[in-house]
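so my prof wants the structure for this chain in the tokens format not the other one, which i didnt know existed until like an hour ago. anyway here's the sequence
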Amino acid sequence: MISIIKRVAKRIGGRGAADAAGPAVVEGEAVLSDQNTMEAQVLAALSRVNDPELGRDLVSLGMVQNVRACDGVVAFTLVLTTPACPMRAQIQQAAEAAVRAIPGVTQVNVELTSNVSARANAAKESVLPGVRNVIAVASGKGGVGKSTVAVNLAAALAESGARVGLLDADIYGPSIPTLMGAVERPDVQNDRLLPVERYEVKLMSLGFLLDENAPVIWRGPLVARAISQLLSDVEWGELDYLIVDLPPGTGDAQLTLAQSVPLTGVVIVMTAQDLALNIASKALLMFRRMEVPVLGVVENMSAFVCPHCQQETPIFGESGRGELAAARLDAPFLGAVPLEPAIVTEGDEGTPSIVAHPQSRQAEAFRSIARAVAARVSVLNLSE
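here's what i got, hopefully its the right format
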């Protein structure tokens, strides 16, 4: 707009105002018209670029904003559906190529940002009004590393830039305080608990409220009430993802969670042995009967990584059994996590693998799983 004013001022200079008024307006309108035409061409070009995960074009998804064009330089903002988007580089490259192909374009500047999609009716939710997505992490049996997966999934999503909370709903064996290195009791404000924070993740667990060695000897109704209170009586604030670490099995905790809030989906954690597969299938079928979408299956402890030679040795049979198990369960396979001895030390010290050894195979596996989960969430939310 400044360049238009300068051109108008130059044209006016040396002539009468009355003589210059007509041509100046015409030229200004012509420049604006050219800019509008270029912006329209940019939108048309980007409407032919599809998000690979969502299968729809960027414009109809509302991912293209702030289109500007001036003297061959085009700039716009791409708003991804999650900061953990696994296709971000591919989408950016395709968008830049489409715009660069427009005649007259000499430079393309793309700003990447994100706005996490929300589950259906999230804005009307009374229990968790500021939480866009609630993701349960479940297993059919104990001992498969479900809590470790939940902790690293939360840490990986937070690392990507998302606002993340982690709720320890494993009432009988709360392990999140230990795994995240948090032992302090939460503060209370206006009769609501304030989450403890570690590694950019908001945390809440019954373990924060009980004595360290106190056993939880509760019947089903008390478990259900405790989970309801951990959901409703905590000041979670604005979150993109609330990860809920459920106890193993198919009992009161799972039913309470599914009935209390609309779950975006559930991640099933298993090992690839036949026994674990049979029990995991029961957990998966329970959530499907409750009409909770299954985001996918994670194979934990897929292979042992020798700390000396880094060779991987499958623990529960041939490699790839987790993917075959997911296919048998008719569920997406989110990824496999190898077992490294360092995970024991990391857990005892309260540091997720993502933080303790960010370049390790485990950390990279958890990041890949987090991206896959985020992508599945976006697909489900935008297909509703």
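also thought this was worth mentioning. The chain has a mean pLDDT of 82.
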